[in-house]
Amino acid sequence: MGKPKCIGILGGGQLARMSLFAGKRLGFDIAILEKESGSPAGQLTHLEFTGSPINKTLLKKFSACSDVITLENEFIDYKILEYIENLGTKVLPSSETISLIQDKLIQKETLKKNNIPVPNFIAVNSKTDFNKAAEFLKLPFILKSRKMGYDGYGNALIKNKRDFDKSFDKLTRRHSKLMAEQFVKFTKELAVMIARTENETAIYPVAETIQKDHICHTVIAPAEISTIVYKKARQAALIAVKAVKGFGLFGIELFLTNTGKILVNEMAPRPHNSGHYTIENCISSQFENHIRSVLGLPLGSTEMIKQCAVMINLLGKTNTTGEVKNYKQALSDQCVHLHVYGKKLSRIGRKMGHITVTGDDRKKVLLKAKKSERKIII
Ligand SMILES: Nc1ncnc2c1ncn2[C@@H]1O[C@H](COP(=O)(O)OP(=O)(O)OP(=O)(O)O)[C@@H](O)[C@H]1O
Ligand SMILES: [Mg+2]
Q: pTM for this structure?
């Protein structure tokens, strides 16, 4: 037998860690490139590359060891991915796809060009753009960093010019370019995961996501929505992936408005928090289909096992080390699946792990998940 195929993942956080578990189970090697050693995924492989993802010597070594390279976030400049492709290593999703996604303004323009409904938006280049934005979008609106935003860190709600000036300064410290978006009064937020290869497409059930302080807190699958909305959501997600010529795994975040309209909020070219429930409740998880899709292998079934799954993120409750402080309490509920990400430090609000509960009675599953989350200290 020859050497197993190796998948290189740019980034070593929890998403890479869970893709690593899925890849290893199928017998593949996983290489991880992360700035510091001992990351959630890096600590689990002998192929741990440590350093900056823009260090070309490091990238050469990393790509020499990988049959294909994929990613766990959209923050690495697409030009770096292009550099890897020019070294002769396939990158999936490709540099071209990432170039259409990683800048939120370009992403929205691409979606709009493909007739995919999105919230109204406008570029913001200076503080003098406030009047133009307020006139076009009406107040309040959302100011967003075009790049490097996650867990809502790149967003601000703007109610007046003072908010705008303050947030303009704060957000441009994160990334120099901004955009503004209509404030959508959604009734629900939905998400759809899609895996796509040259030969097939696998679409996961539509999930409902509930954010607290702009961070994903709870995911309920499937979402409680009408059949028409369910179909519309999956269709919008699929067209969005095609619009960015996407191959690999994608998470598409959607707004459902009170008139039953679906708008695409944003898409992620990687596994997504809204798809963690697929580990226990789908025949093949998003992570397994991440691995399968980047290797061009047949995709696994996205069918649900039990009728309902609820995932709740375990956000840091203390500012100390990152392990669960009360394992006995945390594991006292049977049927609760506990995932701990192995982060060295916990911070209040940081994603440290998650739990998933599955079952056939939606209300009971949700109650159990909520009760269990309250008991865990991490
Ligand atoms: N135009 C909008 N109207 C209303 N609410 C919005 C809008 N854009 C974002 N939000 C709220 O803020 C949350 C985070 O926004 P968004 O998805 O743009 O940010 P992010 O930080 O890139 O995402 P993530 O939390 O997925 O990492 C959304 O899930 C939604 O609850
Ligand atoms: Mg989002």
A: 0.96
